[in-house]
Design brief:
2 helices; about 100 residues; elongated; alpha+beta; about 25% strand
């Protein structure tokens, strides 16, 4: 059985992905009848990819972007020194790490 769906531009502009044939999605909307064909359809208000969360999708998109820019290129990486001369600590103005010191 197949259920027809329709998504209008007002709802489609908020999508974080481009739907493709065969893609599994989760849709939210309302059921309406279409008398000309004598069937029902779902008017989609929101759509999400099914199986992977939005955060994971954003992570994958960022990873691909950084890969294209060469951030994961092994030849561009600097070697890690055997002896570390300095360590930097990034913290807030009131963070406890601000007062941490080690004399080793």
């Amino acid at each position: 059985m197949q259920i027809r769906t329709v998504i209008f531009q007002s709802a489609s502009i908020s999508l974080s992905f481009s739907p493709e044939d065969g893609m599994k999605v989760l849709v939210y909307g309302r059921v309406s009848s279409y008398p000309k064909r004598g069937d029902y359809q779902v008017v989609v208000n929101r759509m999400e990819r099914y199986g992977r969360g939005e955060l994971y999708e954003a992570y994958e998109k960022l990873k691909e972007k950084l890969k294209a820019e060469g951030f994961f290129d092994e030849t561009a990486k600097k070697p890690i020194p055997d002896i570390v001369n300095r360590i930097g600590i990034v913290t807030s103005q009131d963070g406890a790490a601000r007062y941490f010191k080690s004399n080793r």
